[in-house]
Amino acid sequence: MPIDQAAEFDAQPRFRYGARPVPLLGLFRACHPAPAMVVAVLATALTALSGRGATGCALAGLAVLSGQLSVGWCNDRVDLRRDIAAGRADKPLVTGDIRPAAVSVAAGVALAACVPFSLGYGLLAGTVHLVGVAAAWSYNLGVKATVASWLPYAIGFGLLPAAVTLGLPGHPWPAAWAVLAGALLGVGAHAANVLPDIEADTSAGVRGLPQRLGRRRTRVLAVCALFSASAVLVFGPAGPVGAAGWAALAFAASLSGYAVAAPGSGAGGRTPFLAAMAIAVVDVALLLLRGATLA
C-alpha cells in the first residue's frame, strides 16, 4: 500500500482513551468484532443445521471468522486517513491504541488463514467462500465509494448459503430462495449500516449508493430489501408457512412501517437504523429456521 505508515501515524493528531495504549485491545476493536462474530456464528449454525459434523462446523466457523477478521482490519486500515480527518475517537488506529503496520499484518495473516480453513471445508464450497471474501475486500478497497457499493454485500451474503451446502455430500447448490434472501439481506444490511453516518461519509467524499440516494431514500432501500428478504424466507421454501412464519412476517412488517415513518431522519438519528437492524435479526432467525432446507 503506497503509504508511509510510520510518518502518517506520527504526523497526525491522536486521541487517547487512557494514558497508555493497549495494543491487543486495540487490535481486537479494529477487527469490527461484533459483525465478525455474528456472521461466523450464523455460518456455523447453518452448517450444523445442514447436517455437517463437528469437524465441518469448526472449519466453516474458522473460515468465516478469519475472513471476517481480515475484512474488518482491512476496513479500518484503508479508512485511516478518512477516520483521522473525521476525528473518529471510536477507532483504535485514530486513538493510537494500535499502529497501522500491526493492523496491516493482522489483516494479511487472517486472510492467509482463511484460505486453508475454507478449502478444508470443501474445495468448491471453500472457493465460493473466498469469492465472497474477495468481494468484501473489493468494497474496502474502493467499491464502497461507487454506485455499486451494494454489490459486494449482495455477493457475500448471497453466496453464504452456497458456501454451506456445497460442502455437503454430493455438493448440492442451495435453493434459489436461499441465495436471493441472502443477497437481499446483504443489500439491506449495507444500506442500514451506512445510515447513521451518511452525512459524514458524504462530507469525506464517499459516494456509494446510499450517499447518492440520501438519508430518506436509503432508509426506504434498507427497509424494502430487509422486508423482501423476510418475505422470501417465509414463502420461498416448500411447504406450509406455519404460525412462526406468519408471526415473523407480521413482526417484520410492523418494524418496516415504523422504520419508514419514525422520526430520526436528521443527522445522527438512530431510530430507523435500529428498526432496520431489528428486521435483519428477524431475517437471520428465519434463515436459521429454514437452515435444514437450504439445499
UniProtKB/TrEMBL annotation:
Keywords: Membrane, Transmembrane, Transmembrane helix
Membrane topology, as annotated: Multi-pass membrane protein
InterPro entries: UbiA_prenyltransferase, UbiA_sf
Keyword Kinase on entry: no
Transmembrane segments: 119-138, 150-169, 175-198, 219-237, 243-261, 273-292
Name of a matching Pfam family: UbiA
UniProt subcellular location: Membrane
Protein's UniProt name: UbiA family prenyltransferase
Origin species: Streptantibioticus ferralitis
